[in-house]
């Protein structure tokens, strides 16, 4: 029996989530299912002699934009070409897409450059230790909002407002992905509306699995996306989403947004990881000054 690459099935999702957890990705609960539902033809598992050994996502949002992530091969099966075959499958799936993005570990940048990917900006992963929260983190019932704005839970308003706002800040609209992202019961979504009732910022926090969560119960949190029209609004969302949550909190930030870095470091977040966003094709022109946290590194 030879190496087989096949579409990821529902029964594969717990195993792939565990792989991501062991690799230190800190996957959110339900994340892998959302990746599959966003493009059910764009997530694969590699099998050797009937045993799953690796996975990759090459998700096509539309003909203009796609993203590669969730690229894993179990350590004992590395160096045998299994990862290259998975990679080629994703590249082939996205070959007619105008632009493809990915988040590269710094040790892999040269590898991706050989495939035509070019550096765009660094992405910082920050971690807030549970015992190191600054006093400026306010309780969830007392957001520090500028006059004329209101804060609402995501389930209290029309999703279309958030979808429209997100589309203005991403490479392409992502309605399928965002719908599931917003509707997941785990965690919390908060939205800020201006005096006209339009969305001017939103964020989501969700439980995630740490590498040492051996019983399958999430002990950490992933915060993202976090977008806002100003630093003040982003700070208000950040404080409310943090609230009094226990366990470490992780957030991924474009390094070029120095206001985001200031907000996080002021609240006790510490730099945990540095990646490089890379694109193949025409890179999108994003308003990175409004992006204070990415949804996830796996899908951009």
Question: Keyphrases for this structure?
Answer:
single chain, 300 residues, alpha+beta, Aminopeptidase, 2 domains, 13-stranded mixed beta sheet, 25% helix, globular
In short:
The protein has 300 residues and is of the alpha+beta class. The chain has helices at 13-22, 31-38, 82-93, 109-113, 159-167, 175-183, 231-242, 258-266, and strands at residues 3-7, 43-48, 51-60, 65-73, 99-105, 118-128, 150-153, 188-193, 199-208, 220-228, 249-254, 270-281, 291-293. The protein has 2 domains: 3-118, Gcn5-related N-acetyltransferase (GNAT) (Aminopeptidase), CATH 3.40.630.30; 125-293, Aminopeptidase, CATH 3.40.630.90.
CATH architecture grouping of the largest domain: 3-Layer(aba) Sandwich
Overall number of domains = 2
Count of helix runs: 8
Overall average pLDDT: 92
Overall spatial form = globular
The total count of strands amounts to 13
- Please compute the radius of gyration using only Cα atoms: 19 Å
**CATH top level assignment of the largest domain:** Alpha Beta
Structural class computed from helices and strand pairing: alpha+beta
**Oligomer type:** single chain
Strand content: 25-35%
Please write the string of helix (H) and strand (E) elements.
EHHEEEHEHEEHHEEEHEHEE
Task: Characterise this structure.
The chain is 25% helix and 33% strand. The chain contains 8 helices and 13 strands. With 300 residues, the protein is an alpha+beta fold. The chain has helices at 13-22, 31-38, 82-93, 109-113, 159-167, 175-183, 231-242, 258-266; strands at 3-7, 43-48, 51-60, 65-73, 99-105, 118-128, 150-153, 188-193, 199-208, 220-228, 249-254, 270-281, 291-293. Strands 1, 2, 3, 4, 5, 6, 7, 8, 9, 10, 11, 12 and 13 form a 13-stranded mixed beta sheet that branches. The protein has 2 domains: 3-118, 3-Layer(aba) Sandwich (Aminopeptidase), CATH 3.40.630.30; 125-293, Aminopeptidase, CATH 3.40.630.
């Amino acid at each position: 029996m030879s190496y087989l690459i096949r579409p990821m099935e529902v029964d594969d999702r717990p195993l792939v989530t565990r792989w991501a957890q062991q690799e230190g990705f800190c996957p959110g609960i339900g994340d892998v299912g959302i990746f599959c539902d966003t493009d059910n033809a764009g997530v694969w598992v590699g099998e050797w002699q009937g045993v799953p050994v690796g996975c990759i996502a090459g998700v096509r949002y539309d003909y203009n934009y796609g993203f590669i992530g969730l690229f894993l091969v179990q350590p004992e099966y590395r160096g045998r070409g299994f990862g290259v075959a998975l990679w080629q499958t994703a590249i082939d799936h996205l070959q007619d897409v105008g632009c493809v993005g990915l988040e590269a570990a710094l040790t892999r940048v040269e590898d991706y450059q050989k495939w035509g990917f070019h550096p765009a900006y660094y992405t910082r992963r920050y971690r807030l230790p549970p015992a190191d929260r600054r006093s400026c983190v306010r309780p969830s019932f007392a957001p520090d909002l500028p006059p004329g704005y209101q804060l609402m839970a995501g389930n209290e308003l029309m999703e279309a407002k958030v979808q429209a706002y997100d589309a203005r800040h991403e490479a392409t609209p992502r309605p399928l992905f965002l719908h599931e992202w917003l509707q997941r019961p785990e965690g919390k979504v908060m939205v800020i509306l201006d005096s006209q009732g339009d969305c001017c910022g939103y964020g989501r926090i969700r439980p995630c699995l740490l590498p040492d969560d051996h019983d399958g119960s999430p002990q950490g949190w992933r915060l993202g996306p976090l977008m806002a029209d100003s630093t003040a609004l982003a700070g208000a969302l950040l404080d409310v989403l943090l609230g009094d949550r226990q366990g470490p909190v992780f957030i991924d930030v474009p390094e070029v947004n120095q206001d985001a870095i200031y907000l996080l470091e002021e609240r006790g977040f510490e730099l945990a990881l540095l990646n490089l966003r890379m694109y193949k094709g025409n890179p999108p022109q994003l308003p990175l000054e409004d992006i204070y946290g990415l949804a996830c590194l796996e899908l951009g």
